Amino acid sequence: MQETTSQGVLQHKSELSFNDTISALKDNLNAMEFTIIAEVDHSAAAEKVNMTLLPTRLIIFGKPIGGTPLIQETSLFALDLPLKLLINEDINGDVFISFNDPVYLAQRHGVDVDNSAILMMKNAIEKITQ
Question: How many CB atoms are closer than 10 A to CB 46?
């Protein structure tokens, strides 16, 4: 299931637990030879300041062969790269994977939505988040 939650953001509901979703995403990223650049554990950060958040993690990843042509076309594309996956659990225990829609990013930066790098990005994100 894919739905738009806000402008330019797509979301899938995961059938797995929070931790299993993260493991599956990392496995998919590694299998597709993406570099995981960083993980941001927002829940842990909130805990450090005596606040609470439901499980919320951001995985930042990329592959220069895909992103570089877009940045060459318009340097401002670098604001949206590397790519990110937001994994969060809601109050009902449902887990969601959210990400920027590559088509939206292309439109935002004036890049043709049929650009081969955009199409590759779109296909890769679909495979990663399945």
Answer: 14
Q: What is the pTM of this model?
A: 0.93
Structural domains of the chain in order of their starting residue, each with its CATH number: 2-128 (3.30.310.70)
pLDDT in tens, 101-117: 999 999 999 999 999 99
Asked if the bond preceding 82 is cis, omega within 30° of 0, the reply is yes
How far is residue 121's CA from residue 116's CA, in Å, rounded to a whole number? 9
Which SS3 state, helix, strand or coil, does residue 13 take?
A: strand
| Selection from 99, 70, 115 nearest residue 12 by Cα | 99
Give residue 38's Cα distance to chain centre.
12
Quick one: which of 7, 14, 4 has its CA closest to 128? 14
Percentages of the chain per state (helix, strand, coil), in multiples of 5: 45, 30, 25
Of 91, 70, 87, the closest CA to residue 79 belongs to 70
Q: Whole-angstrom Cα distance, residue 42 to residue 55?
A: 8
